[in-house]
Specification:
Layout (H helix, E strand, L loop, with lengths): L10 H34 L3 H32 L5 H20 L3 H22 L2 H5 L5 H26 L3 H24 L15 H32 L7 H29 L2 H21 L5 H27 L5 H30 L7 H19 L11
Helix pairs in contact: 1-2, 1-4, 1-6, 1-7, 2-4, 2-12, 3-4, 3-7, 6-9, 6-11, 8-9, 8-12, 8-13, 9-11, 10-11, 10-13
Length: about 400
Amino acid sequence: MNIATRSRTTDADALRITLLWFGVQLAWGAVLGLSLQARVVQLGGTNALAAYGLISTAGAVAAAIVQLAVGPFSDRLRRGGDKRLGFYVAGSAGAAIALIALYASPTMAALTVSFIALQAAMNVVIGPYQAILPDLVPAGRIGSASGWMAAMQSAGNAAGAILATVLGHTVLLGAVMAAVLLGSCAVTALHVRAVTLQPLGERAPIQVTRKLVDLFVSRALVYVGFYTMLGYFFFYVSSVLGRSPAIDPTTASGIAVLLFTLVGAGGAAIAAKPADRLDERLVVTIGGALMGVALGLLAVVHIPLLVPFVIVVAGVGWGIFLCADWAFACRILPPGALATTMAIWNVAVVGPQMVAPALTTIVLRASGTLQSPFGPRAAMLVAALEIALGAAWIWRLPRQGRGE
C-alpha cells in the first residue's frame, strides 16, 4: 500500500513531516538564544541593551503581523485542496537569505532590517506549518506526531546553540543554518506532496469562543513563566556561583540551557503516547507541575550542585508540556481555519517574550527584591507560579483526548 492511501501515519512519516520544524528551531536556537544579543553588542556598543530591546520587539511585532495575515490566506487555499507547500518553500528561501544577511550586517540598521526580514520570512513558514499535523495525520495519531514536533523543537534549539558556540556569530554560521533549513524544507515538502490530505469538517465561521480564549490564556501564562525563567537564569546562576572560580556564569548558564533543551526532547517522547490515550489536560498539568516544582526548588534551595538536576526535571516537564499543548490545539481548533486560529494561538508565544521581563520587574520592585541578592531567586519563584497558573487554567477546557 503506498503512502497516498495509507491510513496510519508511521514514525518514519512523522519524522519527515516534522523535520522542517527542526530546521526552523535550529535557526531560532542560535539567533534568539545567542547570536542576536552578540551581534547587537558587536554593533551597538554602549547602547546595546536599549538596541536589543528595540530590535527584539520589532521582530516580535513583525512575526505576529505576518502570521495573522498569512494564516487566513493559507486556510482559504487549504479549503480548495492546497497543501500549503508554497508557504513552506517561499518562507524557507526568504529566511535562508535573511539568516546570511543577519550575520553579514555591517551596521545596526542593517541588522535590524535583516532580523525583521528573518522574522517575517520564518512566519510565512510557521503560520501555515502549524496546521500540518491535522492536515496530514489521522486524529488517533496526533499525540504521537506532536511528540515528534516537540522533540524536533528541543533538538533544533540545542543544535542551534551548539553551532553558535562552535562556529561563532559569523557568516559561516548563517550559511550552515540556511543550508539545514532548506534541506529540512525539501524533505518535508517532498513528503507532503505524496500524502493525501485529511478531510476537512464542515466549515464554520471563526468565533472568539471560551475554548479559544482559555487555550490562549493557558498557553500564554506558561510561556510567560518560560521566558521569565530564560531571561533571569543567567542572573540566577551568577548568584548561585558567587565567587566560585570553578566555572564562569556564561559557560554555566549556557550548559544549563543546552541541557534543558536536550532533555526536553526526552520529555516529548515520554508524553507522545499518553497524549493520544489520556486526558490531555492531565498531561499538560504533569508537564507544568514538573517545571513549577523544579523552579520553586531553585528559588528555595540555593545549592550549586542541585542546579543540573533541577534543570533536567524542568526540561522533561517542558517537553511533556510542548507535546500535549500542540496535540490539544490540533484537536480543539476548527479544521477549516487551523492556520488562522493557530496564528492567534501563537501570539501566546510572541506576546510573553515582551510581557515576561516587564511583569517580573514590576513584581520584584513591588516585593522589594529588585536590587537585592534574592532578586534572581524571586524571579524563579515568579516563573514557577506563572507556569502553575497556566497548567491549572487548562482545566477550564473540556476533555480532548483519545483522538477526539
